[in-house]
Design a protein that fits this description.
By secondary structure, the chain is an all-alpha fold. The protein folds into three domains: 183 residues, MFS general substrate transporter like domains (Growth Hormone, Chain: A), CATH 1.20.1250.20; 56 residues; 224 residues, Growth Hormone, Chain: A, CATH 1.20.1250. Helix content is 80%, strand content 0%. The protein is built from 20 helices and no strands. α2 crosses α7, α4 runs antiparallel to α10 and α6 crosses α18. The longest helix has 37 residues. It is globular and about 70 Å long.
């Protein structure tokens, strides 16, 4: 018979205290919170899909509506400009008017805009519908993340919820390519837009029942000067990067928009320092962990961009894949994100965010370097597939913790605008990546062509592929820089995460 010493009694008491604490922690939780997550996940998937689903549909839309080569960019740009410019305002509107209300308005508007695009009879109507999609997505995206933050107050559950959202955010673009290819090939390009309408209506019906209202307390007056300067500044920055990708960095329009962006955003910061009720309270971004998360998100967004753009071109132009087959070629990346997102959500409360994000970015950077070894004569199975699996496993360890640290210990009043800042940094990062890496790839391809004219018919595919590989090397470098940024900025330990995560939302 075992003897019980005082130490055993203390252990029993500690265990009892722990169980009582855990029971208390879970009391009063929203019983419909997992259904809420399902609704938010639907909306998040819809937004992410729309960033890529039209890429494959553009050739068919061009023929149908008589869109010129010079104007085809607006099918994508109209959406990204509106989305990126209005995110901060959208986040604050959700904080003030109520996140559920704005979530429902965003869904209804997105459904209507998608239906308009699906029946568009002219290119002008198509561009307008895409811009309207961006406007309502700017309401929807911050509200979605804010709803998750205020709904899940237990750290382990919140990690799982962010794991779902992270998996969707990371793999949704690849799913969009597959879905866009399928709908365009077997139905019509119009369904790439029209498919959003029933999805958004379904999400709205479910949201009415399962999503609970929340809003910021206190002064709800709007910072009009901040709204104007931030919106104009983000628009100028996004459009400046867009012009740089098409016309180069020395183009007068590119320089003009980037200078205007710098002046407007500097003015915005000065306004936010002085105004009583700022659009973007500076403490949201000056906090070490949140600020590091936004910076890391921007750098990672810029680095990851080339994988989708240049790898898609390599598969279709160099290896001769159809658009649909190219979309399916990205499926292992999506699957890897989904699998490892589950792993990340389990590990986050145990090890803390930095222990996952830094190694994750190193692995993703290594996967990107593997892509720099492709040639027109290498195969998908030997060179592309292993790289995709490495990048997916690494990025899954980044997406989930990054969402958590970006919203860590933010006050309930600023949840929406903090969520919007995360989305904004991702959008700006993607735009920067487009401009920077397009320039890198084009320059490298031109230099290769000049030095290897003797290749004859082989010159074009080899020069293009060389441009892609140089861009992949730059991307790997950006991902590694992201790892360094997060290593030095993120100092939330697992204990801090467990003790403070969600503390402001009870």
């Amino acid at each position: 018979m075992r003897e019980f010493y005082p130490l055993d009694i203390k252990s029993i008491n500690l265990n009892w205290s722990f169980r009582v604490s855990e029971t208390t922690k879970t009391e009063g939780l929203d019983p419909t919170r997992w259904r809420t997550l399902f609704v938010v996940a639907i909306s998040q998937l819809m937004i992410v899909l729309d960033s890529s689903i039209m890429n494959i549909a553009i050739p068919s839309a061009k023929v149908d509506l008589g869109i010129s080569d010079a104007n085809q960019q607006w099918v994508i740009t109209a959406y990204t400009l509106a989305f990126g410019s209005l995110l901060l305002l959208g986040g604050r509107i959700g904080d003030y008017m109520g996140r559920k209300k704005i979530f429902l308005i965003g869904l209804a508007g997105f459904a209507a805009a998608s239906a308009l695009g699906g029946i568009a009879s002219t290119e002008g109507i198509l561009y307008a519908s895409r811009a309207l999609q961006g406007v309502f997505a700017a309401l929807l995206a911050p509200a979605a993340l804010a709803i998750i933050s205020v709904t899940f107050t237990v750290p382990k559950e919140r990690a799982k919820a962010f794991g779902v959202i992270g998996a969707i955010s990371g793999g949704g673009a690849a799913i969009g390519l597959i879905l866009g290819g399928t709908l365009t090939e077997y139905f019509s390009w119009r369904w790439c837009l029209g498919v959003n309408t029933p999805i958004a209506i379904l999400a709205a019906i479910l949201a009415i029942k399962f999503v609970h209202e929340s809003k910021a307390q206190g002064d709800h007056s709007y910072d009009i000067p901040g709204v104007l300067t931030a919106t104009a500044g983000l628009f100028s920055l996004t459009y400046g990067f867009h012009e740089a990708a098409i016309k180069g960095w020395s183009d007068s329009l590119t320089i003009g928009f980037l200078l205007a962006a710098a002046a407007l955003l500097l003015t915005f910061v000065l306004i936010e320092k002085r105004v009583k009720n700022p659009l973007m309270p500076l403490h949201v971004v000056t906090d070490r962990n949140r600020g590091g998360s936004y910076l890391g998100s921007l750098v990672v967004g810029a680095g990851l961009f080339s994988m989708f753009l240049f790898l898609g071109l390599y598969l279709q132009v160099i290896l001769g894949y159809t658009p649909l087959r190219s979309g399916f070629a990205f499926l292992p990346f999506t699957a890897g994100i989904i699998v490892f997102a589950g792993v990340a959500s389990q590990l986050l409360p145990k090890f803390g965010p930095r222990a996952l994000m830094v190694p994750g970015l190193v692995v993703a950077s290594s996967g990107m370097l593997m892509l720099s070894r492709i040639t027109p004569e290498t195969s998908y199975a030997t060179h592309v597939l292993p790289a995709l699996l490495m990048m997916s496993s690494g990025m899954a360890l980044v997406f989930i913790p990054l969402t958590s640290t970006a919203l860590h210990a933010v006050s309930p009043r600023d949840t929406g605008v903090a969520s919007a800042m995360l989305n904004t940094s991702q959008q700006i990062g993607g735009s920067l990546g487009t401009a920077l890496l397009n320039t890198v790839a084009a320059t490298a391809a031109a230099t290769y062509s000049a030095a290897n004219a003797q290749l004859g018919e082989k010159l074009t595919p080899f020069a293009m592929t060389h441009g892609f590989t140089v861009a992949f090397k730059f991307s790997a470098g950006l991902l590694f820089i992201g790892a360094i940024v997060l290593f030095f900025f993120i100092n939330i330990g697992k204990e801090s995460l467990v003790e403070t995560e969600g503390a402001g939302f009870h």
